[in-house]
């Protein structure tokens, strides 16, 4: 994780967020209003709700970034209950409105990133206290994960290797905050090793960064992995 968020990786990470956002918007431009009301990989969530959630996430990360620039700490989601309640408003929105919202909020977040002079400033995220630079990877994870959830043509095969490695490491951070998960040592083909979970005898699971990430986030099965033995994970995010 330390290597993933070092200062030399800030610009490449921002570029990957921009590319991931463009890919998502490009896939969604063809969706009709009826398509936006359709189901996603998240049980009970429509595409409109996922898009609304993703846009509000960009807003929240922008506020955290601006607070850090001013030397202040701000929770990512000060009012979690309101965050979930707001999802109900998403289903009445048009596809055009959702596209504009996704594009505008992504741009606002990137503008805030452009104002940062100290990427080592500490921010409090749900996974713990980390340098502000980690927020870029957090956003990349959100965009790519929810792009999969939207059930367009996007798949794990579209992930490039460096981004897949970052995503796997970020998912492992999340998993280490959750209790009751099986003990697993993740060994990727790129050399990433992450230990997550605490229940039972630790097993080793091997595969590509992308396949391991898709598996531990609950988005894909274990067919491409070695050592998973039918083990499945709850949906992350």
Q: What labels describe this entry?
A:
3-stranded mixed sheet, alpha+beta, globular, 5 strands
Record field, number of beta strands: 5
Counting DSSP H or I runs of 4 or more residues, the number of helices is: 8
Major sheet strand order: 4-3-5
**Cα Rg:** 18 Å
Helical residues, percent: 40-55%
Strand residue percentage: 5-15%
Structural class: alpha+beta
Main sheet summary: 3 strands, mixed
Measured distance between first and last alpha carbons: 19 Å
The whole-number mean of residue pLDDT values reads 93
Low-confidence stretches: none
Helix-strand topology string: HHHHHEEHHEEEH
- Categorize the overall geometry: globular
Describe this structure in words.
Helix content is 47%, strand content 12%. The chain is globular, with a radius of gyration of 18 Å. Helix 7 (161-175) runs parallel beside helix 8 (209-216). The mean pLDDT is 93. It is an alpha+beta fold. It has a three-stranded mixed sheet with strand order 4-3-5. A hairpin with a 2-residue loop joins strand 1 (122-125) and strand 2 (128-131). The longest helix has 23 residues, at 47-69. It contains eight helices and five strands.
SSE layout and pairing:
Elements: H1 10-28, H2 33-36, H3 47-69, H4 80-85, H5 95-114, E1 122-125, E2 128-131, H6 134-149, H7 161-175, E3 182-188, E4 193-196, E5 199-207, H8 209-216
Parallel strand pairs: 3-5
Antiparallel strand pairs: 1-2, 3-4
